[in-house]
Amino acid sequence: xxxxxxxxxxxxxxxxxxxxxxxxxxxxxxxxxxxxxxxxxxxxxxxxxxxxxxxxxxxxxxxxxxxxxxxxxxxxxxxxxxxxxxxxxxxxxxxxxxxxxxxxxxxxxxxxxxxxxxxxxxxxxxxxxxxxxxxxxxxxxxxxxxxxxxxxxxxxxxxxxxxxxxxxxxxxxxxxxxxxxxxxxxxxxxxxxxxxxxxxxxxxxxxxxxxxxxxxxxxxxxxxxxxxxxxxxxxxxxxxxxxxxxxxxxxxxxxxxxxxxxxxxxxxxxxxxxxxxx
Length: 278
Description:
CATH topology: Rossmann fold
Strand content: 15-25%
Order of helices and strands: EEEEHEHEHHHHHHEHEHH
Oligomer: single chain
Helix content: 25-40%
């Protein structure tokens, strides 16, 4: 397991999977170990995935200062990984909450990004975030599912602060609630650093106006890939996030939720590879 040292001295780990040109991958959660990403639906047949364990997760070390779990503080961890690997510029893929980390990286180091892939991203760094209404509207698309009758009230109560997280609402994050989805969901808690998760979006992490201004210098192509059934982001929010980049495109994967590589691996890999190899 290779490691490198972050600017503040924290030892960070990453995992190499597959063959081909490197694709640096940032996991979501927020602050979930990269193991949940697996081979990203078979993307390892086309690219060598460089899966970073963010500080305090997976095999990476715990920082001396917990305040460095805030999203903006980890931008230089990503830059340190690029330098460690000797890449002049890199292809970068981020999932979910890591979308904001990747956006901040692209804003701070635009010349270091060759291509950027944002998979069902949380665009808080752009001053956008899925609303309760967004999530409930997406959830209603699943009304035909056998688990909907129990899951929807649990989701509504959780989103409106009337109750804590109920496992009954987990299926809304997946396009297909099958054994693979259940296994991924069941592993979530053990793979997530809860203290870091609570600090990731802390006050001061984002300056959307400054980030948008900085992104005007980004010449790299950007792909925003959304799931048709995902509530965070819904396709419309993903479209608005894509519009923040000078050279971007949006794709919406039919029947997919928040983990599109799990819902239809062939569709997911085909779309991402087509963008990276263009």
